[in-house]
Design a protein that fits this description.
globular; seven-stranded antiparallel sheet; binds alpha-L-arabinofuranose; eight-stranded parallel sheet; 36 strands
Amino acid sequence: MNKIINQILGLGVGVVLACGCGTTPSETQTETAASHTFQIDASKTIAKVEPTMYGIFFEDINFAIDGGLYAELVKNRSFEFDKPLRGWTELKDKGLGVRFLPINTNNPRNTRFMRVQIEDQGSGAGLLNEGFRGMGLKEGLPHNFSIQVRGGDGKVSAIRIELLDSKGEVIANSRVDGINNEWQTLTTSLTPSKTDAKGTMKIWFEGEGTVDIDMVSLFPTDTWKGRKNGLRADLVQLLADMDPGFLRFPGGCIVEGFDLSQRYQWKNTVGDVDERVVTINRWNFEFDHRPAPDYYQSFGVGFYEYFLLAEDLEAEPVPILNCGMACQFNTGELVPLDQLDPYIQDALDLIEFANGSTDSKWGELRADMGHPEPFNLKMLGVGNEQWGPQYVERYVPIVNAVKAKYPEIQIIAATGSDGSIFPNGEEEIEYLWKVWKRLKPEIVDEHFYRNPDWFMENTDWYDNYERTGSKLFVGEWAAQSVGVASPDNKNNWETALSEAAFLTGLERNADLVTMTSYAPLFAHAEGWQWTPDLIWFDNLDSYGTANYYVQKMYATNPGTHVIPLEKDGKPVTGQNGLYATATRDENAGELIIKIVNTGEAAVETSFDVAGATIGAEVTAEVLSSKELEAVNTLDEGNKISPRTEKKTLDSEKLAYQLEPYSFTVLRVEAK
Ligand code: AHR
């Protein structure tokens, strides 16, 4: 960033520092602002903007799902974490009167339940669940409690439930009874008298004897669309507000797993929630500096819920499947080629699950789960961040099998990770591109985790990229303020501004780049492993970062066709600290200009528009901050957020003053 600022200063542009005296920068800087004129030709088309252009990358990292999007408040509800009582505290007198005994079942999809043996109640026998860094409990809102229970000898006949605030005071209580010697689900509702982000739940067993319990669950009732087993509405709303073109899931490295036993297996994530195979999350132990021993995947959100979410968001579902390789940053374990069949079958069955008739095995399951209509899957990723010939050897048979049965499915192929961070990265990418030129997957996925300077200096990255026939999915990128995966990275305004600049280059190359997404998406303020992230939350609240608002402004103003926007016959790729792109929106009959000012001074801009007559009023959506280090926080979630203003143009010329350090989207009628 400094390089570019110095460059601007070196050009002798009149710079006025923000005075911070209560007026907006544009009010104080009119006289000294530099001035630049750009040429736009609305009659020419550079590229069509695909509806998929701006989307969402979803991975269960940073407690994004369990403890985040998934509204379940109980951690380790089925006692199937490696340590059966992780997340639970035994409530009993010291001594042998009460025992908690994890019992293994013969069911590989529901491997354990908890047996409670009470010989002597003493001062009480119970369990406390700590939630995910606490439970977010809401005053006046009914919370649905349920438990699977079987009484051994009939002497424990009831369970008392208490919700507690962070001080340990009871803020709701209830009771379920009727326990008998058959497994059954008992339910009740609790309405807290207080809101607390750090609540807990206690369950107390009444009587002396044996009782078996499983699937102890507590859900708030204000889930997205009020669904049972639902999602946190505030988090889904932030996604919906982005108007994403696609939803990529479930990752990310989580697709690959630390080793193959921990890979993401979609079939383990569908069907009844208590029959989903709890699996350790590979981010549990990935970073020594951010250990998360309580991070597991309950798969309460599994592939059905991902498809449903994509449908809710009117986004194309983009599942990514394991291709017989574990994460190459971890074990890189490979399935032998002669044992690849289950992976191939997983791919074929997934397409049947998403699109198949309800007479088919997997289509029937989809219908049983509540969605007889197909999900209309069009794209499938084979492998996440794979590289090397071992990837190609596994990719080819999987893709051949998919294409033989479902030729219409578009395949997404990987190019490894960001070339700058994996072993021999650039060479590996080159190697794969040679293969992709030959095999021509419909879409190739590229990732960039670099510093803000790189993002600003490479807005022309795709301008001269070879057009090989494959489209590009710039599937993971984020400016790193300190270094890749450094715990000190911040979602500050400098990173967001640099991403806004980079995106002008992606949009200008929309003939090639048809999909793009920031990564990772979500982070729990206390439970995160990786930063920066697009959206942060705690147990009750959430906010979009400055980076989020950049994405949102692009995604909600895509236009339908890219048109030329130039200065002195060249695209605007950083001259005078400015980056710009233009589209026309044939549905709205508007011209859309996205322009980034990375300088610390205001800039007067004007646009000579050929090929269309523009309207008299321009709408500007402006995202800016005087401080490059500024960040949004849970307390100040909208500190950096867009404001919209309308301006009547003085003449027939489209002119607008850009604020210092700003990203602006201008929309004007163009006929
Ligand atoms: O976004 C975080 C991780 O970065 C993803 O899991 C992986 O694909 C990439 O290396």
